[in-house]
Design brief:
The complex is a heterodimer of chains A (about 675) and B (about 625). By secondary structure, chain A is an alpha/beta fold. Chain A has 27 helices and 17 strands. Chain B has about 625 residues and is an alpha+beta fold. About 5% of the residues of chain B have low confidence. Classes of the chains: A alpha/beta (about 675), B alpha+beta (about 625). At the A-B interface, loops of A face helix 17 of B. Chain B: Its cofactor is FAD. Chain B: Its main location: membrane. Chain B: One of its GO terms (molecular function) is FAD binding.
Chain lengths: ~675, ~625
C-alpha cells in the first residue's frame, strides 16, 4: 500500500503544529503533572521492569542458550545464568512515570531555550495512536543529534501515548546520572561491539522480543545504528531489525507496525563536534562533564526542529510474498534459528524502505539549499582568491530561488514560509549558522576556525584542516538535501560520463553508480530500474532530459540543472578517486583501517594544496570508510582475518578498473550485480 | 444419571429406526425404479442378513437435497420469533430455544426479517443430461446391480457439504457437471464387477459413502468427458462377522456410523469411533479420509482401529494375508489406502477393533477464566496422559453460542440454580463473562475408575484456575457439534454463511495460531467489504502428546455483498494460509479433496507428491477413479 508513489504518505494537508507554543503559554509544571493514561496495544497491562526481566530470564530460549554456553565453556549453568542476569541488569530499562514527569518538566525548559519551534504533524500522531491499538509498534527515527533521544518520549508523553522503550548505546549509560536518567526514562543499553558473545546476543534478543510480544510499550530504535555525523542516512544495521521482526515471522504476534519518523533540525547542536570527528579529532568520551560544559550550547539559537511521524507500515503487508513464515515450522520456536537468505534480504529491504521514507519526509531548511550552492561555488574558486571574493548575496539569492523550484519539483519538503519575503527567509536561515558563514559587504564567505589564542602561525596543512572544518560543517547541511537530488544527479552524471544517448548505456552506468555509492547513499535493493525511470521522469519534468524508447538525451536548455546535479556528486567522486589512487600506490599492500584513514587524509591534503583536488569531502573519515566498505562489497578489497584488527588486502587491478569505469575511461562491465 | 439418559435415548432411537426401516422396505417393494435388487452370493460366514441400514438408495426420501441431515429436522424461527428445532430425532427436537434469536441477531447483525429462502425443489432443467456409456450400461444391466440416472439421484451425489456446494443448491444454480449415473453395489463382488466394467469401457468412477465431505472431494471434475458413475456404497452396510476372541468385527465399508454403533451395541460392543459426522458418514469414507473420532483418546483414530482393509482397484483387489496386530512387512500398504480419498479404488470391507460397551459414561465441564489457562490445562492433561475419552476446549464465543441453544427452562428452580451458578463464577470468582471459556469432558469406563479419573482431571484443572461447571454444560457442548450443520442451514435462511475448518498444530503454537487465524479472518472480511463483524470461534478438539487439533467456526452476515460465496472462499483461503504460516497442518481429519490441493506440494514436498503419483500411476493408470482429489 505504501511502497509505491509516495511511501511517506505525505499529503499537502499534513499540517505541522508547534508543541512549544502551548508550552510558552501554559505552566510547564502543569504539563509535567498532567494525567497520563495512554492506552497500549490490546490494553496490555503495564509490565514492571522487574517482571519483564524475570520473563526474559525464565524464557525457554534463554534457558536453552544458557545450557549451551555452559556446555561450551565448561562453566556451571548457574554461573552462566548469573552472568545472563548481570547482562540483563546492565541492559534493562526502568521506565518510571515519575521520571518521565521530571524529564518532561526539564525538557520543556531546555527545548524552549534551544528551539524556536518544535513542529510535529498531528495527523501522524493520530495515525500512530491508531496503530498502537492494533499491533506492537516500532518507532524508527533517524538519528542526527543526541537531542533525538528523548524528544519522541516527550512528544508521546504530551499526547498521552505510551512512552517507548528506547535502544541506546552503552557509552551513554556510562555518563554519571545521565545513564540513570535515561534508564528511568525507558532507555535500555546495548554494547557496541557484541561480536560473537552468544550469551549477550541471546539476552538482548530475548529482551527485545519479549517487549515486542507483550506489546506494552512501543520499541524505539535507530535503524542507522549510530548518530550520523555527516547528516546523511547511514547504511541500516540489521541486528535490531531482525530482533523486532522475529515475533512476527514466528507468528507470535499478528503483525508489527513500523513507524518511520523523520527528525530534521535547522541547526544540529553538535555540528562543530561532528566536523572535528570527521577530520580525525577523536570523539570526546560521552561524559556528564562534557555535557555540562556543553551548556554554552544552550545559549545559542538552533531554529526549528521538525518531527514527522510517517505512515505506519504493516510488516505483514510489506513482507507478503517475500518471506515464507513456514520456514520456522520445523524448529521449536524457542530455539535460536538463523533466518533464511530470503528473510535476511527481506529484512534488509525493509530497513532500506524505512530509511527511504525517513528521507522523503524529512524537512529541508532554506539553508540546506543554500549550502549546496555555497559549496559548489567554493569548489570552483581557487583557494587563493576565495577569501576576498566569496559569492555575492544577489547571485546566491537568485540561485537559491531557482534551486527551490527544482527541489519542489523533485518532491522535496521545504520549510519555507510564505511570509516574510524570500530574501529575509534566506537571511534568517543563514543567520543561524553565523559560526561558519557570514555575509559581509554583499559577499557570502565561509569562516575558518580561529586558532588557539597566542598560538603562532600554523602550517599550510593546518590551514587546510581549518578550511575543511568549515566546509564539512556546511557540507553536512548540503547532505541533508542530497536524497532529493541523488538519483537524478546520477542519471545526469551517467549521460555526461558515458557520452552516450543510448538508454541502455546510461542505465548500466547508473547501476554502476548505485552499486558503488550504496554505502554513502541508501538505495532500495532491487529497485534500480524504477529508480532510473523515476529519476528520468523528474528530469524530463524540468526539461533537463528528453527520453524516448531507446534514448535519453540532455538538451542544451537543461544544462543548468544537469551541471548543478553533477556538481553535487563531484565531491564524492573525487573522494572515491582519492582513496582509489591511494590504494593503488605501490607501497600499499596489506593495511588496516587505522592505517588507511590518515594516509588517505595526507594524500588528500597534498592534492588540495596542489589544487588538483578542490573538495574537502575526501578528508572525511566517514567517506573514506564508506569507500572501503564499498570496495569490500565489490570484492576489490579482501578482508584477512588476523588478530584483533581486521586487515585488508587491496586488489589493485580491480580498484583501478573501478576508478577507470567511474571516470568513464572504461565501459561498465556487464556482469550485473544480482543484488540490484 | 447421564448413562441412564443415554440408554433411554438409545432405545428411543432404535425404535424410531425400526419403524423407518419398515417404511423403506415398503418403498422397495413398490419397485418404482424398475431395478431388481439382487442379493449378493452368501458369504463364507453365512451372513444372510437383510439390508436394514438407515440410508435408502433414494436418499432424498429422508434427507434434505439442499441442506444437512434429515428432512424432518430443521431449525426455524417461529411466528413469535423464537427458534425451534423440528422433528423427533434429537434431544433438542420439538423444543423452543428462547435465547437463540437474540444471540443470532446480535452476533451477526442479522435480522429474522431478512430472509434468504432456498429454492424449494430441484429444477431438473439445471441438471445437465447424462452422458451415458451405452456399452457400460448394457454390461451393468446384465450383472443385475441396481443403478439410476434420474436427476435427483445424480444431483444428490454431485456434492458434499462445503458452503459453496450447499449455497449453489439453495440458489438453484446450474450445475456444470454431475455424475451421469449412480450404482448401488450390494457387496464386495458387485464392486469388483463394476470396477472391471469401468476399466473395460473407460468409465470414470467416483466412490460415494456418506456424502459428508467438506473438501469438494465429491465434486465432479468439470473437465471430465467420460461417463461419470457415482458408486454409492450405502447398501453395503452389513456386519459380516464379529470375533469376540480377538475383539474385531468384519464390516462392509458402506455402513454409516450410527448403524455400525447400533448393530454392535446390540451385541454389547462398540467401536468407539465417533466423528462429529457419524450420523451420516461411512466406514469407507473414514478410511479414505483418515477420519478422527471424538473419543480417540480411548479408542484411537481410524488408522489405529483398522486391522484389515479390502479395497478394489483397477489393478485388482488389495488386502493383507493375515490379521496380525502389527507387522513389519515394509511400508504399511494400509497407509496407501488410508487418506487416498477415492483416487485409488473403493474400500469394500474393513476389519476393525471393537470394545465392550463401557459400563459408565459421564459428562463434565470446567470453566477457565481465559482461553490461555484452558489451553495450558489441556496441555498438562496431555502431558500426564490422563485425557478422558473426550476433552475439548471451547473459546468464549462458542461458550456463548452453546448457551444460546439452551431450551426453555421449565421450572423456576432450575432458573434459580442457573442464576446462582452464574453469580458464583462471574461475581465471586471474578471471571469475566466475555473472557471465560469452558472445557467439556466425557469420561468412560467402569464407574469407580471414571470417578477417580474425573477427580484427577479436575485437580489438574484447578491448578490452572479451572472450576468444575457441571455435567449439563459438558453435554451441551457435544450437542452443539451434532446440530451445528443444521444451524448453518438456519443461518443461510437469514443471509448468514458459515463453515468450519480444522488443523493440527504443536502445543507451543496453539495460542498464537488461534489468535492469528481469527485476526486474519476478521481483517480479511473487512478488506473484502463484509459489512458486519464476522463470527470467528475455535475450539481445541483433540489432544495429543505433542500437539492438538483445532477446529474453527467462521460465519458472517453477507448482506450487501455481490458474491458472498466468492468472498467467503477468499477469506477461507487466507485463513488456511495463515494456519500453514503458523505451523498448522493442512488438515487434521477433513482431508484435502480438491479444496486444498494447491498446498499439497508445500505440505509433503515434491518427492512426497511424486511418490503418491507413482502409486496412482501403477494402481490406476487410466484414471478410472477420476475424482482428481489430492494430487
Amino acid at each position: 500500500m505504501t511502497t509505491c508513489e509516495d511511501p511517506s504518505g505525505y499529503k499537502q494537508e499534513d499540517e505541522f503544529m508547534d508543541i512549544l507554543e502551548e508550552r510558552r503559554r501554559s505552566s510547564d509544571l502543569g504539563h509535567a503533572l498532567r494525567t497520563f493514561t495512554p492506552s497500549p496495544y490490546r490494553g496490555a497491562p503495564p509490565l514492571s521492569a522487574g517482571a519483564l526481566n524475570r520473563m526474559v530470564l525464565e524464557s525457554q530460549y534463554l534457558r536453552y542458550v544458557t545450557k549451551e554456553v555452559a556446555m561450551e565453556t565448561g562453566e556451571s549453568v548457574d554461573l552462566v545464568r548469573e552472568e545472563a542476569s548481570g547482562i540483563l541488569d546492565e541492559m534493562s530499562q526502568n521506565l518510571q512515570l515519575g521520571f518521565i514527569r521530571l524529564l518532561g518538566f526539564t525538557l520543556s525548559k531546555v527545548f524552549k531555550r534551544l528551539f524556536s519551534h518544535i513542529n510535529i504533524n498531528q495527523e501522524g500522531l493520530n495515525r500512530l495512536q491508531q496503530a498502537i491499538q492494533e499491533s506492537p509498534v516500532i518507532l524508527m527515527p533517524n538519528h542526527r543529534s543526541y537531542v533525538d533521544f528523548l524528544v519522541l518520549s516527550y512528544i508521546l508523553f504530551t499526547y498521552d501515548l505510551p512512552i517507548p522503550v528506547i535502544a541506546a548505546g552503552i557509552p551513554l549509560m556510562d555518563m554519571k546520572m545521565v545513564g540513570e536518567i535515561l534508564r528511568r526514562s525507558g532507555a535500555f543499553f546495548i554494547r557496541r561491539a557484541i561480536g560473537s558473545d552468544k550469551l549477550y546476543w541471546a539476552v538482548l534478543s530475548e529482551y527485545v522480543k519479549t517487549i515486542v510480544r507483550t506489546g506494552y510499550a512501543p520499541v524505539e530504535f535507530y535503524v542507522e545504528g549510530l548518530r550520523s555525523r555527516t547528516l546523511k542516512s547511514l547504511t541500516p544495521k540489521l541486528g535490531m531489525m531482525h530482533m523486532v521482526l522475529e515475533p512476527f515471522f514466528k507468528g507470535e504476534v499478528y503483525d508489527i507496525t513500523l513507524v518511520p519518523i523523520s527528525i530534521s533540525y535547522d541547526r544540529v547542536l553538535e555540528e562543530s563536534l561532528l566536523a572535528h570527528e570527521l577530520l580525525g579529532v577523536p570523539k570526546p568520551r560521552e561524559t556528564t562533564m562534557g555535557l555540562l560544559k556543553a551548556r554554552r550550547v544552550l545559549e545559542d539559537d538552533y531554529g526549528s526542529m521538525h518531527v514527522y511521524f510517517g505512515m505506519p507500515l504493516s510488516v505483514r503487508q510489506l513482507t507478503k510474498g517475500r518471506v515464507d513464515r513456514c520456514e520456522y515450522n520445523l524448529l521449536p520456536r524457542d530455539l535460536p534459528q538463523r533466518p533464511s537468505v530470503e528473510t535476511q534480504e527481506c529484512v534488509s529491504w525493509l530497513a532500506q524502505q524505512v530509511i527511504r521514507v525517513q528521507e522523503q519526509s524529512s524537512i529541508l531548511s532554506p539553508w540546506s539549499l543554500m549550502a549546496c550552492l555555497v559549496l559548489q561555488d567554493h569548489q570552483n574558486t581557487d583557494p587563493g582568491e576565495e577569501q576576498e571574493k566569496g559569492l555575492s548575496w544577489e547571485l546566491l539569492t537568485q540561485r537559491t530561488l531557482w534551486l527551490k523550484g527544482l527541489a519542489i519539483s523533485f518532491g522535496a519538503r521545504l520549510d519555507w514560509p510564505e511570509q516574510p519575503p524570500e530574501n529575509q527567509v534566506m537571511a534568517s536561515s543563514m543567520a543561524l549558522h553565523s559560526s561558519v558563514i557570514r555575509c559581509h559587504q554583499g559577499r557570502v564567505t565561509l569562516l575558518e576556525e580561529e586558532g588557539p589564542v597566542g598560538a603562532g602561525p600554523f602550517t599550510t596543512e593546518e590551514g587546510v584542516v581549518r578550511r575543511a572544518r568549515a566546509v564539512l560543517m556546511v557540507a553536512a547541511y548540503r547532505n541533508q538535501a542530497l536524497h532529493v537530488f541523488i538519483r537524478p544527479a546520477m542519471v545526469a552524471l551517467a549521460i555526461h560520463t558515458t557520452r552516450s544517448s543510448q538508454r541502455e548505456d546510461i542505465y548500466s552506468y547508473f547501476r554502476f553508480l548505485l552499486d558503488l555509492f550504496s554505502n554513502d547513499f541508501i538505495f532500495i535493493t532491487g529497485r534500480s530500474s524504477q529508480d532510473f525511470e523515476e529519476a528520468c521522469s523528474l528530469l524530463r519534468k524540468c526539461g533537463a532530459v528528453q527520453t524516448s524508447q531507446q534514448e535519453v538525451t540532455s538538451p542544451e536548455e537543461g544544462q543548468r540543472t544537469t551541471s548543478f546535479l553533477r556538481a553535487l556528486l563531484q565531491p564524492f567522486i573525487d573522494a572515491y578517486q582519492v582513496v582509489f589512487s591511494h590504494l593503488c600506490l605501490e607501497d600499499v599492500e596489506v593495511f588496516t583501517e587505522r592505517q588507511m584513514v590518515p594516509a588517505v587524509r595526507s594524500l588528500a591534503t597534498k592534492l588540495l594544496l596542489s589544487g588538483e583536488l578542490t573538495s574537502c569531502d575526501a578528508l572525511s573519515s566517514d567517506t573514506q570508510k564508506n569507500v572501503l566498505s564499498a570496495l569490500l562489497r565489490l570484492g576489490a578489497v579482501t578482508r584477512l582475518r588476523t588478530a584483533e584488527h581486521s586487515e585488508f588486502r587491496a586488489n589493485k587491478p580491480a580498484i583501478s578498473r573501478l576508478a577507470d569505469t567511474l571516470a568513464g575511461r572504461l565501459p561498465v562491465q556487464t556482469a550485473p550485480n544480482p543484488r540490484l | 444419571m447421564a448413562s441412564n439418559n443415554n440408554s433411554s435415548d438409545r432405545q428411543r432411537i432404535a425404535q424410531q429406526r425400526l419403524s423407518r426401516i419398515a417404511a423403506h422396505l415398503h418403498k422397495h417393494e413398490d419397485g418404482n425404479s424398475g431395478i431388481i435388487a439382487k442379493e449378493c452370493k452368501i458369504d463364507a460366514t453365512g451372513s444372510t442378513e437383510e439390508n436394514k441400514g438407515t440410508v435408502p438408495r433414494k436418499r432424498q426420501e429422508i434427507m434434505k437435497w439442499n441442506g444437512w441431515g434429515y428432512s424432518d429436522s430443521k431449525f426455524l424461527f417461529n411466528k413469535k420469533g423464537q427458534a425451534e428445532f423440528t422433528g423427533k430425532r434429537y434431544r433438542l427436537s420439538g423444543m423452543t430455544l428462547p435465547s437463540l434469536q437474540d444471540w443470532f441477531e446480535n452476533t451477526f447483525g442479522a435480522s429474522v426479517k431478512h430472509k434468504s429462502p432456498a429454492t424449494p425443489v430441484l429444477n431438473a432443467s439445471v441438471v445437465p443430461p447424462p452422458r451415458l456409456n451405452e456399452a457400460f450400461v448394457e454390461n451393468l444391466k446384465a450383472t443385475g446391480i441396481p443403478f439410476s440416472n434420474e436427476a435427483e439421484d445424480r444431483v444428490f451425489r454431485a456434492h458434499g457439504h462445503c458452503l459453496h456446494e450447499i449455497f449453489a443448491l439453495r440458489e438453484g444454480k446450474k450445475f456444470e457437471r454431475v455424475p451421469d449415473m449412480v450404482v448401488w453395489p450390494n457387496c464386495h463382488n458387485d464392486v469388483v464387477k463394476i470396477v472391471e466394467l469401468a476399466c473395460k469401457h473407460n468409465v470414470c468412477l467416483i466412490p460415494y459413502g456418506g456424502g459428508t465431505s467438506v473438501t469438494s472431494a465429491l465434486e465432479c471434475p468439470p473437465e471430465e468427458t467420460r461417463c461419470i458413475v457415482s458408486l454409492d456404497t450405502s447398501q453395503m452396510n452389513r456386519i459380516l462377522w464379529l470375533d469376540e476372541n480377538n475383539l474385531v468385527a468384519h464390516v462392509e465399508a458402506g455402513i454409516i456410523g450410527q448403524d455400525l454403533e447400533r448393530l454392535l451395541n446390540e451385541s454389547g460392543y462398540c467401536t468407539g469411533h465417533e466423528p462429529d459426522s457419524m450420523e451420516f458418514s461411512s466406514l469407507g469414507g473414514w478410511v479414505a479420509t483418515r477420519a478422527s473420532g471424538m473419543k480417540k483418546n480411548v479408542y484411537g483414530n481410524i488408522e489405529d482401529l483398522v486391522i484389515h482393509i479390502k479395497a478394489v482397484t483397477p489393478r485388482g483387489v488389495i488386502e493383507k494375508s493375515c490379521q496380525g496386530p502389527r507387522t513389519s512387512t515394509g511400508p504399511d500398504i494400509h497407509h496407501f489406502i488410508l487418506g487416498s480419498e477415492g483416487t485409488l479404488g473403493v474400500v469394500t470391507e474393513v476389519t476393525m477393533k471393537i470394545r465392550p460397551i463401557p459400563e459408565y459414561q459421564k459428562y463434565g465441564s470446567v470453566v477457565f477464566p481465559k482461553f490461555e489457562a484452558g489451553v495450558a490445562c489441556l496441555r498438562e492433561v496431555a502431558k500426564q496422559r490422563c485425557a478422558p475419552a473426550s476433552i475439548r476446549l471451547m473459546d468464549n464465543k462458542q461458550f456463548h453460542f452453546g448457551h444460546a441453544l439452551k431450551p426453555q427452562v421449565s421450572s423456576i428452580f432450575t432458573h434459580f440454580v442457573e442464576g446462582l451458578k452464574k453469580f458464583y463464577i462471574t461475581k465471586l470468582k471474578g471471571f469475566d463473562p466475555h473472557q471465560l471459556v469452558v472445557a467439556t469432558l466425557l469420561f468412560e469406563g467402569d464407574r469407580e475408575r471414571v470417578l477417580q479419573h474425573e477427580k484427577q482431571v479436575y485437580d489438574i484443572a484447578a491448578t490452572f484456575g479451572g472450576l468444575a461447571a457441571g455435567e449439563d454444560n459438558g453435554q451441551r457442548g457435544y450437542l452443539l457439534t451434532f446440530v451445528i450443520a443444521y444451524l448453518r442451514d438456519l443461518g443461510m435462511d437469514y443471509c448468514v454463511v458459515a463453515e468450519s475448518f480444522e488443523t493440527s498444530v504443536p502445543w507451543d503454537r496453539v495460542l498464537d495460531l488461534c489468535q492469528n487465524v481469527k485476526e486474519r479472518i476478521i481483517r480479511e472480511c473487512k478488506e473484502r467489504g463484509v459489512q458486519f463483524q464476522p463470527l470467528t470461534s475455535c475450539r481445541v478438539t483433540q489432544t495429543y502428546d505433542s500437539g492438538a487439533c483445532i477446529y474453527f467456526y467462521f460465519a458472517f452476515n453477507y448482506r450487501g455483498l455481490a458474491d458472498p460465496v466468492h468472498t467467503y472462499e477468499q477469506v477461507e483461503h487466507a485463513a488456511r494460509e495463515e494456519i500453514l504460516a503458523n505451523g498448522g497442518s493442512l488438515s487434521h481429519h477433513h482431508g484435502v479433496g480438491k479444496l486444498r490441493k494447491e498446498w499439497m506440494k508445500d505440505s509433503i514436498s515434491n518427492v512426497g507428491v511424486g511418490m503418491l503419483k507413482s502409486v496412482k500411476e501403477y494402481v490406476d493408470p487410466e484414471n478410472i477413479f477420476g475424482n482428481r482429489n489430492l494430487l
